[in-house]
Amino acid sequence: MTLIINATALLADIDVETDRTDAVQSFVKQETVLVTLTTADGLTGTGYAYTIGTGGSSVLALLRDHLLPLLAGRDARNVEGLWRSLFAHTRATTTGAVTSLALATVDTALWDLRCKRAGEPLWRLAGGHRREIPVYDTEGGWLHLGTEELVESALAAQQARFAGVKIKVGKPHVAEDAERLRAVREAVGPALHVMTDANQSQSLASAVRLAAALEPYDPYWLEEPMPADDVSGHARLPP
Hints:
The protein is of the alpha/beta class and about 240 residues long. It has two domains: about 5-125, Enolase-like, N-terminal domain (Enolase-like, domain 1, 2-Layer Sandwich); about 135-235, Enolase-like C-terminal domain (TIM Barrel). The model has no long low-confidence stretch (mean pLDDT about 95). Helix 7 links the parallel strand 6 and strand 7 (about 220-225). It has helices at about 55-65, 80-90, 95-120, 120-125, 145-160, 175-190, 205-215, 230-235, and strands at about 5-15, 30-40, 45-50, 135, 165-170, 195, 220-225. The strands form two sheets. A four-stranded parallel sheet has the order 4-5-6-7, covered by helices on one side. A three-stranded antiparallel sheet has the order 1-2-3. Helix 1 packs across helix 3 (about 95-120), helix 2 runs antiparallel to helix 3 and helix 6 (about 175-190) packs parallel to helix 7 (about 205-215). The radius of gyration is 21 Å and the shape is elongated. It has eight helices and seven strands; from the N terminus they run E-E-E-H-H-H-H-E-H-E-H-E-H-E-H. It starts with a strand and ends with a helix.
């Protein structure tokens, strides 16, 4: 009864309500890839992943042409085993976002089925015990926003009792990033966490300069300073 009898995928393009820009890209639209899995006992699980404007059709093709056909007749309860099976089937392309996104849609659909069958929310079924966790706001920190807008958004997040805010960095001049962070820090005070995100836009040398310029304003972290595959650069990045 828990065997998968149907697996489908579709792509839904969702236009963004406002432009969003970071140091390396723009959020053009949300290409949402949805996978639906149906089991013999009538349960349906849905999983999804998304891109910000490119690659969605490639994820969809990988699912339809290579991954979903492998799920027919398989036991949906075997979440880890199915993930490993699909991973092995795509080993030649596993390095990169396209395969990761495709695998994620199936994985989350299987977990959706598992939770529905157990009648429990995901956080409890996965072993969680906290009913509340701190969250931070990233919506008001995009790189294209002016300093005044950053400050207004940060103050609004603080008023709404967010634990922190995230500010995009990667302006043409380091001084611009430092000034934007300074303005936010002075507005919200020392208690609010202020994270920063360079979106993999820096070299080792520029990441070191950027971190030094931001340090006086107590950033909680500097996220993705360099490209993820720059292993040697990360190894040399000062702690």
